[in-house]
Amino acid sequence: TTRGAAANDISATSDMSMLTPNACIDMCYGEKPTRPVVQLVDVRLQGKNNKGVMSDGETTFFAVFNSAVAKMFRSESNPDGQVELYSAVRLTDYTISTISAETRVAIVMGMEMNESQPEGKIGDPVSAKDKGKPEPAELPAATPSKGPSPGGHSNTTPESSQQSRVAPAGFAPKPAARASEPAAPGRPTPIEALNPYSRTWTVRAKVTENGELRSITTKAGETMSVWEMVIADESGEIKCTAWRADAERFARIAELGSTYLVSRGQIKIANKRYSSTANNYEITLGADSAMVKQDVELKTFTPTYHFDFTPIADLSAKPANSTVDVIGSVTEVGPVQNIVSKAGRELVKRVINLSDDSNAAIEVTLWGKSAETFAEDAAATAAVIAFKGLVVSEWNTRSLGAVRSTKIQMDPDLPQAKRVKAWADTGAASAATSLSINTSGGGSGGGGASMADDLAELLGLPPSKIPEKGAYATVGGYISRILTSKGGGGGGPAEERPIWYSACPKCNKKAIGEYGAGWSCESCGWSGDACTHRYIVAVQLIDASGTSYATAYQEQAIAIFGKTADELKAIKDADQSAFEAECSSVLFKRRTFRLRAKIETYQGVDRTKVGVVNSTPTTPITEGKRMLADIMKYDLPEPPAPEPSATPDEPMPQAAADGEAAEPAAVEA
Q1: Residue range 429-451: average pLDDT?
Q2: d(CA 148, CA 165)
Q3: How confident is the model at residue 48 (pLDDT cuts 50, 70, 90)?
Q4: Of 187, 315, 410, 443, which has fewest CB within 10 angstroms of its CB?
Q5: Are 363 and 400 in contact (CB under 8 A)?
Q6: Using only C-alpha atoms, what is the Rg of the chain?
Q7: Cα separations in angstroms, 379 against 75, 354, 435
Q8: How far, in Å, CA of 56 to CA of 217, rounded?
């Protein structure tokens, strides 16, 4: 019996040695041991409320686990989890959150299994809060301690005769604060210490991003205001959002670059689809939130974006709505387009084409200010751009879209950028296979989506080979005619053919009415004094293989004319000859067209109808890159070395005088 008890004592001592001594009691008093090893003696996983109790063998401390850590626990729904009750774990990422003056909790955001594991529960630990912090081994000359005070510790100095314990040398505890009071302005909370369990806090931070006040419409039809900003201090950055009246209030207060004391907001886990800040949390400002300007210059946190680049060729395997980081060379920059959403909101967008050294290309759609301020010459300079937080879309087969949280870095100082730049300088970018149906309109992109290389080949496709969604082709050619009239055959008068239609400003469907008498829409029920106009332009295209009629709609026609339908109609109403001059100005200028051919049945006969998906002017730079990429496809021999030029001692042939025949040598020269 004695030998068995001794063996158990040895085993308990061995298990105790794997845990970090006094780890839990140190956390209880606000200290943060580095990568401590603790045992989990209680675990409760309840969806988003995941908590437990940690032990250092002698004392215990309460812990809360985030969703990523909760996935490490073994359960019926997660049989592959490694962590279970009584496991010894090493805390790799955690913080101590103060709930009240005497209550703290550990927020665990990262942990790993310890190398050695116990056979069961180690020791008989008690709550660290009940036990109190032990006195140091060596005490300075002071009045002996008479035991712990209520709560386990005291704020008195070592010289006090009423102290309940002796604090270590240099220890300066924080003064207790009531839960109803914000943190003292003189000692603001660092942004990196904020978490959902922070009850009373105040941060002093600078506004590094100040969004616009905008309106959104919910699925229930409610229209509300929303506003966002990003604030930063020396420790980190965090996104703040306000809604409804609070959004209007804070949007008036916030100024980009100014410093504020911000307090009393709800801290929650950040939605990374809409927030790309270097923080796992975000703040929602409410009616009781405060934002007070400070006349101080604050040194702020400089965010370092950690990119996880996905090769463009691998994006076809990514599910829709997933978020990715991409780096590539810009090969095409489309024009800025003004569109109206289904909800009636006016939006600004721009489509660019991006390719990388996986020999693949894809379209990226930018919105708002990002679209308006994007460098027009990015394709001409083959700029390399890194995107963080693009959303994968199935639009145009496969494409990427920017959201409000997307970050853009032009020509970043990254090894991946240098690699892509070197690849693009060879001209290979123009020959990359596109994952998108190339609505940006430039180059020979389109890859597998293109089924023809010229008009004759596109029109010659048999109906059986044209998919239901249409056959696509990228064609270089010209507009030879704008069809503004129809009929006139057999000597009869020609009938005017409008290149626009009267549209409902709310849903863009056809509006019925007359000028001066009012308009109405049968589709959505709108009625008003004035309608808008949208393009529906019939054009004749020509290339080296032949001609074809095609239809260009709103955005595509705006790219051709450079004017909206309302603007062009105003010119026509004022001066017919000026209108005809506008139409003639777009003829016989080389452009790159993205065309779609579909089969339509008219009076029982199938016929091919061609539509313009997009159109951009062909520049010498883009055309030269395309031709260079085509040349590189051939295995051509090296060009012969040039013949040496004439030496200075050899006289150069004299040019023939006017009216005289040139000597053969001069002709050769």
Answers
A1: 57
A2: 6
A3: low
A4: 187
A5: yes
A6: 36
A7: 53, 9, 19
A8: 52
